[in-house]
Specification:
The protein has 13 helices and 15 strands. By secondary structure, it is α/β, with parallel strands linked by helices. The protein folds into 2 domains: about 160 residues, Alpha-Beta Complex (Aspartate Aminotransferase, domain 1), CATH 3.90.1150; about 250 residues, Type I PLP-dependent aspartate aminotransferase-like (Major domain) (Aspartate Aminotransferase, domain 2, 3-Layer(aba) Sandwich). Strand 3, helix 6 and strand 4 form a beta-alpha-beta unit. Helix 3 packs antiparallel against helix 10, helix 4 runs parallel beside helix 10 and helix 10 packs across helix 11. It is globular. The N terminus is likely disordered. The structure holds pyridoxal-5'-phosphate (PLP). Pyridoxal-5'-phosphate binds next to helix 5.
Length: about 425
């Protein structure tokens, strides 16, 4: 198929999709009020129903959940309803009871205690709380990878500039999980205080062996911080089981929450080690200015402060409820089925090099690839022109395109993507 034929074929698909979606919307009830069919990850009807819960356009295939997740109607409606409710009475709506109601399902999803969760504006804010809260000083060594997102680079470099900490780097190996453990272990010295790594790399979507790295860190008295921006909402896991000391995630990627939402987990025993630095109303549990005394909140709420946007946090609660309705195991099965389909199809295309791990257990719902003859940004532009939204990855010199597959994607969209890649080759 050449470029012109491809445009025709895609245009045909788009026209059909647009027609179907118009017909759908004129004949069905408001999506979020339709009764849910039983969740069955093997049933395409079920996933079509899930897809109908999103206003996300069908005109463009969206493969950038790793950058930003689309929110379902229930989330948007929950935010709007809370804004309306609060604006009518001009109140913040911030109550202890609401906080507990919202944080309980989040803690359940992440496998930790409700007291260990703090609301943040994004993953970056959580990273900053940990980076600036830990007692790190000149000469202390921090181990991190060459595949970090800028959000898990800049705060540590700022600490290097300000305090003189030392940063040691390892290149993640996509060949074996053990190799990554070994590479980290080789960097450990008497001065190592912290390992700061992603749960899933933003570059190749590699799932790192956090539990094993955590055991290694614990055995050497080193803290472990995990950047969970790409894992919360994509797959099931249990933070207590993983054993890290702190974990930061955003609500606006795989969790499908409102934009500018995030969560920070700090292991209970670490509350007085990760010192709360940005503090104010809600961070404390009583103070006396005259006596100069201050008690921090006994929970991770100590990392929160001041008036916040309550409707956004209510929306995050609705997003977690939405994912739990599907079941996080089912979400993972679907995301993985789509990404495996893509992985297998990409393998059939000459000159395509897949940069994500070959080992299925280390591969997630983000697949990154390169073309041997077409620069990645050119390929991205080509795909863009066919309304295929990908993410270019330059971090760590990867220079590839990353494809995220989440519950609103389907196999037909991946076929379109594959045709798009093939047509670029034929240009
Ligand atoms: C691994 C990783 N960490 C952190 C971030 C930053 O997330 P946020 O914008 O929510 O702070 C991203 C965003 O893409 C990411 O991929």
């Amino acid at each position: 198929m050449n470029r012109k034929q491809f445009i025709h074929s895609v245009a045909g698909t788009l026209a059909t999709t647009a027609l179907v979606s118009t017909l759908d919307s004129s004949t069905r009830e408001e999506p979020s009020h339709t009764p849910w069919p039983p969740a069955d990850p093997a049933d395409e009807h079920f996933w079509r129903f899930v897809r109908d819960q999103f206003p996300l356009t069908r005109d463009r295939a969206y493969f950038n959940t790793g950058g930003l997740g689309a929110s379902p109607y229930v989330v948007i409606e929950a935010v709007k309803a809370k804004i309306d409710e609060l604006e009518e009475i001009s109140e913040t709506g911030h109550t202890e009871q609401l906080w507990r109601e919202l944080k309980t399902p989040i803690a359940h999803l992440l496998g930790c205690d409700v007291e260990e969760i703090a609301f943040m504006r994004n993953a970056t804010e959580g990273i900053n709380v940990v980076c600036n809260g830990l007692p790190l000083k000149k000469g202390d060594e921090i181990i991190t990878s060459t595949h970090e997102h800028v959000a898990n680079v800049v705060p540590w470099l700022a600490l290097l500039q300000r305090e003189g900490v030392v940063i040691e780097l390892f290149e993640p190996s996509t060949q074996s999980a053990q190799e990554n453990i070994d590479r980290i272990e080789k960097l450990i010295t008497r001065r190592t205080r912290l390992i700061s790594i992603p749960h899933i790399t933003t570059t190749t979507g590699q799932l790192l062996p956090i539990k094993e790295i955590s055991q290694l860190a614990r055995s050497k008295n080193i803290w472990l911080f995990v950047d969970g921006a790409q894992s919360a909402g994509m797959l099931p896991f249990n933070l207590h089981d993983l054993g890290c000391d702190a974990y930061a995630a955003c609500g606006h990627k795989w969790l499908l929450g409102p934009k500018e939402t995030g969560v920070l987990y700090v292991r209970k025993e670490m509350f007085d080690v990760v010192r709360a630095k940005f503090v104010g109303a809600y961070s404390d549990h009583g103070y006396d200015l005259a006596k100069g005394t201050l008690a921090f909140h006994p929970t991770a709420q100590r990392y929160e402060y001041g008036t916040v946007n309550v409707p956004l946090r209510v929306g995050l609660g609705a997003a977690v409820g939405f994912l739990q309705r599907i079941g996080i195991e089912n979400v993972w099965k679907r995301d993985k089925a789509l990404s495996n389909y893509l992985y297998n199809a990409l393998q059939q295309i000459p000159d395509i090099k897949i940069l994500s791990p070959a080992n299925d257990a280390e591969r997630t719902a983000m697949i990154t690839f390169q073309h041997a003859k077409i620069p990645f940004l050119e390929l991205q532009q080509h795909l863009n022109s066919f309304k295929l939204r990908t993410r270019s990855v330059s971090e760590g010199g990867v220079d590839g395109l990353r494809i995220s597959t989440h519950i609103y994607n389907n196999f037909e969209e991946i076929d379109r993507l594959i045709e798009g890649v093939k047509s670029a080759v034929l240009q």
